[in-house]
Amino acid sequence: MAVSYAYYSGTYGGGLPEAAFSSCVGMAESHVKWLCAVKGACASSTAYKRAVCAACEAFAEFGSGEVGGYTIGSFTVRNYENKGTTGEELATQAALRELGLSGMAFCGVR
User: Fold this and answer.
1) 3-state SS class at 68
2) Dihedral over Cα of 44, 50, 54, 56: its sign
3) C-alpha span between 26 and 24 (Å, rounded)
4) What residues contact residue 109 under an 8 Å CB cut-off, 6+ apart?
5) Which of 16, 58, 91, 106 is 20–30 Å from 22 (CA)?
6) Does pLDDT of 9 surpass 80?
7) Is the pTM of this model over 0.90?
8) Residue 9 class from Cβ within 10 Å (0-12 exposed, 13-18 middle, 19+ buried)?
């Protein structure tokens, strides 16, 4: 992994518990690599590491599926006002904010 929990909590200033970070960092790094696939990524750059941290937080909070609603036992309520936003879309937005003008992100990503 390009990002350790020490980097996430110390340098980035993230607040996820280590277990939550560990469960999402692999998916977050894969997602950032995907965002950078066409342009290439420098996994040791600050922008790349910060993008992984931001995506990790989004995946930890929202998962990768549809955002909105809740489930209690077998009762489920979905929030249809969110227009189908997914955790993956929120992770993409968070990562792209960190990649900024680094030139690593594929500009075809919406």
Assistant:
1) coil
2) positive
3) 6
4) 35, 92, 96
5) 106
6) yes
7) no
8) middle
CA geometry: angle 49, 45, 6, nearest 5 deg: 40
CA angle 103, 52, 18 (to 5 degrees): 165
pLDDT in tens, 32-75: 988 887 677 788 889 999 999 999 998 888 776 555 666 677 76
* Position 109, amino acid: V
d(CA 25, CA 52): 7
Among candidate residues 79, 108, 82, the one with its CA nearest the CA of residue 96: 108
Question: Is 91 within 8 Å of 28 (Cβ atoms)?
Answer: yes
Residue type, 78: R
Polymer length in residues for the chain: 110
